[in-house]
Amino acid sequence: MDKLKNYDTLLFAAIAFYAIYLFTSYSGIGISPDSIMYTSAARNFVANGNLHTFNNIPIVDFPVFYPFFLGVISFISQTDPVKFGAVLNMCMFATLIFTSGWIMSRFTPASHIYKWLALAAIILNPGLLQVYSYLWSETLFILEVLLFLIVFRKYLLTHAGKWLVFAAGIAAVACITRYAAVTIVGTGGLLLLLDRQLPIRKKVSHIIIYGLICISLLVANLTFNALHTGTVTGPREPSITSFSQNLYYFGSVFCEWIGMTPNMYHTFALPLAIIILVGFIAALTFNFTRRKLDSFENLAITFALIYGLFIVLSSTFSRYERINPRLLAPMYIPALWGYTSWGLLLLKRIADRRVRMAVAAIFILMMLGYITQIYLIDKKRYNDQIVDEYGNPGYTDNDWMESEFAKYLKTIDKGMFAPKVGIYSDAHEAVYFFSGMSSYLVPHKFFKKDVEKFYKIKRFYLIWFNNLENPELINIKDIQKVKKLKVIKQFEEGAIYEYDSQNQN
Description:
The protein is mainly alpha-helical. It has 22 helices and 7 strands.
């Protein structure tokens, strides 16, 4: 049976590899605006030894490690990230599944059937399949979460300083992969505080060592950002969603993951969010009273709780994309473990064999029902994006590949733009992706001084995409009210304009 621990996990890892192959088989790796930021910084790392984006400023909105990671692979392989991205994600998703299986083989108690069901649920989760179909930093961050759980559990079992330093090192790297990795730091810090086996003096020293190592790289990254750009994480706007709204969005993601239809979200999303978070709090409290903090299951519960609360609270104070499956993908595996592994303990405590078999059968049927439900969601996405030949939504899907404007940008004569005259756009990453040209994003409406500064520019070019309406940016109608724009090239999907104050009548 020991061999089966590895062979069955390898089989699921191979299935995971193939799943990402399927979802990237038509148009390659999915490319979003974030992907282009990562890619341009990686290309600059290879070409110039820095992590500047396409507009020649240091990457600030995102931490530096993921583009550095892509840059190192690109340098070694002499291949562009967009070209190797699909294969990289196939390998990373397979590694994630193998690591998950390795961890579940060490649950107490462990069960092969439970592991198989859980691995199937992980592979088929729509959120994870989406994340690993795109060139996104979550692909690396989710793997770092599991590696941290493995190493930090080793520390909890031994209280050896070397394992504490190793775990803190993983957390430090994770913090410059995703800023949300402060939740990994919080997971370890909370468990250190709750650990009753550590003498007070040793606990204090370990917390200090752990904290200093964890935040070291993040502090260096943020300090660099502040010195070179004047902001630590780029310009941030205050949130426009309340705590209750964010709880609802949080719950709606889990409603989606368990197969509910959107018309059911209004009824179930908010209660489900509360049940999930309160349940994790109750489970952590229960484990603390039983002095059972060193299990993988408890580590998973602790991380899922802290990560979930962080996303809801940070969304309440700072504006970024609405809570969605991509944002919550890092907590899916820990949450799945937290809400299913208790079944193994329950079965262990049932003395009557027939009752135990009946309960096990009910549990298996519930898991199979859930797996079937998410499989149908994945099948629909596969039919829409691969069978119907549309591609992963983003800059490599059919809408963009068949766009006359995008085709024009790919072959544009850069000499048509006067030297040293700024180029602006409502999608500067799209301009770079299709033409290779640097441009600047038109200002956000919220930042009034930036808007005023933009309107004072005496000459500029404007590349505008009609189908990318962003309500947070000043739009083309706003600009035309203030500036008389000259059309250089017009398309159905957008246009290229020029403004020159000297030619205004």
